[in-house]
Amino acid sequence: MGTQREISAEFTEQSIKGFEQYLYERENAEATIEKYLRDVRAFFNIWVMIPELIKRN
Known about the structure:
By secondary structure, this protein is mostly helical. The chain has one domain (4-56). Helices cover 86% and strands 0% of the residues. The protein has 2 helices and no strands. It has helices at residues 4-25, 30-56. It is elongated. It starts with a helix and ends with a helix. The model has no long low-confidence stretch (mean pLDDT 84).
């Protein structure tokens, strides 16, 4: 079994792929899909870092 971070990353990537599929099904423009996915990945990267930031303070 992986660490919490590995499990979270795996879950997150699966969720993002599902979101991407949803956007394609809605027939969003390619540029819109790329922007949404970039924004979602940035959010999750920050979200994963929060516990480490809290520990430091």
